[in-house]
Write a structure and sequence with these properties.
eight-stranded parallel beta sheet; elongated; six-stranded antiparallel β-barrel; about 30% helix; 13 helices; alpha/beta; about 400 residues; homodimer
Chain lengths: ~400, ~400
C-alpha cells in the first residue's frame, strides 16, 4: 500500500481514509509530473519559467516549482507577494495592472528587499508610478502589459500608447524591464490548430511590441508571455525570454477540454461523501456543493460539459458519465449525464466516499483553507493555503 | 458625516476611504433593517425564527440576529456549529443530511453542552444515527427532512419512508423532534403568484408530513420550514412552528430578481478600484474579479442578468446599466449592458472606487476573510468570517 509504484491517487488511501469531507486533495505524484514536464519543456525552449502562484497560494507547491527550476514567481495580489516574500521568495512579478492605491504596498515590499516587478498599460498609470516613485526615491521595475489577443487588459502592440508609456516610465527614471502578455483567450480553444494559432499570435504580438520599444531607443530586456495552453503548445519562442503559466501544476477539466492534459494528469480533486439519495430521479446527494467545488462552470460552454465536476472513485479512477449535475452551498447532486440511473443508491450507498475532478483548479482551491497532499509514501500531509487580499 | 440620518452606505465614507480593495462591505444600517423586518414578520406570524448562519459565518451578524429575537440558528457545516457554539450559541440545527462519518463530531458537540439538532431523510441514515447513538448512550435530537418541492433532498411527505424513518428513530431511542423542509425552488420564482404558490406548498407539504407522523403515534413537536423568498411571502403559517432563512440578512441581486427586496435593501457590496481601460471596447477594468465576486452567475437565467454584479458609486448609489460583464481571477470588466460607452475612461478614471452589488451574498461573502462593516456612526469595523470545514 505504501509502494511508490502504486497508482497515483491510490497510494495514500489508508491515510486518506481518515480525512474529513469535503476536502481538496492533491495527488503529489501527478503534481510533480506536471511540474517536471512543464519545466523540461521550458528548458528545451530556452526560456525562463515563472509559474503563477495564484493557482495554489500554497508554499509547498511553489517550493516544488522552484526546486524544479522555476526562476521567480508570478502573483495576482499584493498579499501573495507579501506571503511568498516572507517565505523567502524574492523574485516576484505582480501581474495585475498597478493602481495608484497599491503603490505604497509595492514600495514597502521593495524596501524590505523584494525584487517586485509591476505592470502598467496606460499613460495615467505610468504617470502615477513615476510620480510616486520619484516622490519616494524608488526606481520601480516595470513591464508594459501588451494586449496580444483582445481578451482583457494591455496596450495594442502596434499603437502609439505603447511607446508613450515606455517613454513616460523610462524618462521618469523607472526601470523599464520590457513587455508582458497573457493570451487568456487560449482557454477558448478546443483543437490543436486554433491553439497553435493563438500560441504564435501571443509570441508574435509581444515580440513585435518589444521590437518597437527597442527601435524607439527604449530598453526591453524582458519579453514575458504565457498561459497554460500556449506554454504547452509552444514549439519555438523566438524573441521570448520568459514564460508564465499557473494552472498546469494541477490541471483541471477546462484544460482537459482545451486539449492540454488528460484526466489522468489532473492532480486536484475534492473528496466527498454520499449523504443521501433521490432514487426515482437517479440522484445521489454528496457533501460537496458549490462551497467545495466553487461556482465555476467553465466546461459549460466547452465541447464536454462536466457539470460541477467528474466523479471518481475514492482511489481517483473516473466513473465515466457520472458528474455533479447540480450544486447548492453544501449539497452536490451526482447523476448520470445521460439517462436516469435507477440503481444510484446501490452504486453509491450512503457513506460512499468519492473524488471529484474540478472544472477549474484555481477556483476550487480557493474554497479550501488547505490541501490534503497525498505523498508518494501514501501519507497525507496538510498544506495550508491563504486567501483574501 | 457621523449623523445617523445619513444615507445608508454614505455614512462611513471617510473611514471606508482607507479600506483596501477589493473588500466585502456590509452596510450595517441596511442589514439591521433587514433583520428587524424579518423578525417582526415572523413575530406577527407567531413562529420561532432560526436564521441560517451559512450566509455570513460571522459572529457579529449572528449576534445581531439573536438580539432581534431569533431563537437558535441553522448551520450548514459542523464547523459552523463548532464555531458558533464556542461563541456561546448553544441552540443549533445542522441542516444538511447527517452522514455516519460526522456523527462523532455531532456527539462531541452535544457532550460539550450544545443542543445540536441533526436531520435525516433515509432509513439507512436513520439506522446509522440509532446505531451510533445507542453505542454511545446518546439520544440525538433528529428532524426528518421533507421534500416539499422536488428540488433536492428529503423524503416524500405522503410516502412510506417518512413513517419508516420516524419509527426507526423513535423506537431506536432517539428524540424525534419533527420535520423540516426547505423550498429551494422558490429561488426560481419571479412573480408574486408563483412565489405565493411555492410558499403555500412548502407549508402544506411539511404540515402534511407532520400530521402523518402524529397520526402514526410518533412525536412531532417541531414543524420547520423556510427559505428567504417563502419566509417573506408567507401570510399565514398554520401548523408551522419555526421558520429558517439565510440570505435575507444581506440580500442580493438574485433575491431582487425574485422580487423580495429592492436594490436599496442589499447590504453587501464589494468595494473595488478601476485599474485600467480598453476605451474602444467601452471597458473599465477593476480589481474585483471572480475571486472577489465569486463565480456565481445566479442572475444569468433570471429576468435581469446583472453579469457578475451591479456597479454603484463608492457611496453605494447604483449606476443604472453598468455591470461587471466579465471576470477573470483578479480582473473584472465593467461595461454598459447595452451599447459601448466610448467615454468609459472619463466616466470611471484610473483609481475610481466603486461598489458592486453581488448576485449571491452567500457565495460572494465566502470569498472574503472578513467584512468591512460600515457602522451608523460612519466608522468601519472589521468583522471576521470563517470558512472551510
Amino acid at each position: 500500500m505504501n509502494s511508490p509504484q502504486a497508482l497515483p491517487g491510490g497510494s495514500g488511501l489508508t491515510a486518506l481514509s481518515t480525512v474529513q469531507t469535503p476536502s481538496a486533495v492533491i495527488d503529489t505524484a501527478r503534481m510533480q509530473a506536471n511540474i517536471d514536464r512543464m519545466q523540461s519543456h521550458m528548458n528545451s525552449l530556452g526560456v525562463r519559467f515563472r509559474p503563477h502562484a495564484k493557482t495554489t497560494k500554497c508554499l509547498p507547491v511553489v517550493q516544488a516549482q522552484i526546486a524544479a527550476g522555476a526562476q521567480g514567481i508570478t502573483v495576482s495580489t499584493i498579499k501573495e507577494a507579501e506571503q511568498f516574500f516572507a517565505a523567502g521568495i524574492t523574485d516576484l512579478l505582480y501581474a495585475v495592472g498597478m493602481q495608484p492605491g497599491k503603490l505604497s504596498q509595492a514600495l514597502a515590499l521593495r524596501r524590505k528587499g523584494a525584487s517586485l516587478q509591476i505592470i502598467t498599460d496606460s499613460i495615467a498609470s505610468a504617470n502615477a508610478i513615476v510620480d510616486f516613485g520619484r516622490a519616494h526615491g524608488e526606481s520601480f521595475e516595470v513591464l508594459i502589459e501588451i494586449d496580444a489577443d483582445g481578451h482583457r487588459s494591455g496596450v495594442q502592440p502596434d499603437g502609439d500608447v505603447l511607446l508613450q508609456v515606455g517613454r513616460v516610465l523610462h524618462d521618469g527614471g523607472m526601470r523599464l524591464l520590457g513587455v508582458m502578455a497573457h493570451a487568456g483567450s487560449s482557454y477558448d480553444c478546443d483543437d490543436p490548430e486554433s491553439l497553435r494559432r493563438i500560441t504564435e499570435q501571443e509570441r508574435r504580438e509581444t515580440v513585435r511590441a518589444a521590437d518597437r520599444l527597442r527601435r524607439a531607443g527604449l530598453p526591453c530586456p524582458v519579453v514575458s508571455i504565457g498561459s497554460t495552453p500556449t506554454a504547452i503548445a509552444a514549439q519555438s519562442l523566438d524573441g521570448v525570454t520568459e514564460v508564465r503559466a499557473g494552472v498546469y501544476v494541477l490541471f483541471d477539466l477546462v484544460m482537459h477540454n482545451v486539449g492540454v492534459c488528460g484526466l489522468q494528469d489532473i492532480a486536484l480533486s475534492v473528496l466527498t461523501t454520499v449523504i443521501g439519495h433521490q432514487n426515482e430521479k437517479g440522484w445521489a446527494i454528496v457533501d460537496a456543493g458549490w462551497m467545495a467545488m466553487s461556482r465555476d462552470r467553465g466546461t459549460q460552454k466547452q465541447k464536454h460539459d462536466f457539470g460541477y465536476g467528474q466523479i471518481c472513485t475514492e482511489e481517483g479512477v473516473p466513473i465515466t458519465g457520472y458528474v455533479i449535475s447540480g450544486a447548492n452551498q453544501e449539497h452536490g447532486i451526482v447523476s448520470r449525464a445521460s439517462g436516469i440511473d435507477m440503481k444510484i443508491a446501490d452504486r453509491f450507498p450512503l457513506g460512499t466516499r468519492l473524488r471529484v475532478l474540478p472544472n477549474h483548479a484555481c477556483a476550487t482551491g480557493a474554497q479550501h483553507p488547505q490541501y490534503e497532499a497525498v505523498l508518494a509514501n501514501g501519507e497525507v500531509e496538510t498544506w495550508p493555503r491563504f486567501y483574501g487580499w
